[in-house]
Amino acid sequence: xxxxxIGNGNHSKRIQKxxxxxxxxxxxxxxxxxxxxxxxxxxKIKKCKTIFITSPNKTHYFYIKKLWLNRYLFCEKPxxxxxxxxxxxxxxxxxxxxxxxxxxxxxxxxxxxxxKNYNLGxxxxxxxxxxxxxxLKDDYKKNWRSNKMSNQYGIFEMVLIxxxxxxxxxxxxxxxxxxxxxxxxxxxTSYDTxxxxxxxxxxxxxxxxxxxxxxxxKKFLILFTNGYIEQIENKIFIYGPxxxxxxxxxxxxxxxxxxxxxxxxxxxxxxxEESIHYFLDHSDNKKTFNxxxxxxxxxxxxxxxxxxxx
Length: 310
Known about the structure:
Elements: E1 2-6, H1 10-21, E2 25-29, H2 39-46, E3 50-53, H3 60-67, E4 72-76, H4 83-90, E5 97-100, H5 107-113, E6 123-131, H6 155-170, E7 173-182, E8 193-200, E9 205-211, E10 217-224, E11 227-232, E12 235-239, E13 256-261, H7 264-284, H8 291-306
Parallel strand pairs: 1-2, 1-3, 3-4, 4-5, 6-9
Antiparallel strand pairs: 6-10, 7-8, 8-9, 10-11, 11-12, 12-13
Helix pairs in contact: 4-8, 6-8
């Protein structure tokens, strides 16, 4: 079985490498120029029953609409970037379409999935900071990510949507309360920086911040009533219980329940590999995809587009 791949950028090449390791045969379709459509070459892709859509985000809708019927589709996140496109996706069946929110397979996701094992209590606050200097590189202006026409929501749709989806997958996000997108570097026209706050349930908020205009830094705090999870760079710590007193009866930092060393590059690669394995297992064996995963993908996309869950 020959797999079709639409797009041939850096992320597509990561996926191609994984497919090669799995001994999969594939063909690649990439337009020769923006807004160019090669019908003859595209007809070759249409003959494939399994297709990876790894093209720029604004093109996903175009390809999904042409290919969704009777094929297994793996589409990069976000699935779409406009309201009318999201409405179209809601009308489709979940059975053969998979959206690659691969952070659902990350180490932090596995910890959250088993959170009851640590007796941390109720979730009360989340904070995520992720930064690096992509916008400071000389070739950033030439990258489609820096162009607002190609990347409408900037770093929100490229980075923060992964973490927004991760939280929405385990704890339903109701709506975004505050959103600020700016272009600090002034390199390109899209947003290289984003700050957002959102509601999770009643009286529970989260704050996210991401930028392409600073040194590399990552921090993740998930706070519960009886402990917390903290990821700082390459280490994840789970602390608890809350009641940890010194000899004078004063509160001190909770004990470390569990800690993990984390290679972030490897964790990302592993999550991508697991996501692709999940997709191929279903397409190869003609299984239908989990409806929850499909719905959660659309919910996370709606939060980006509409500011609230649909």
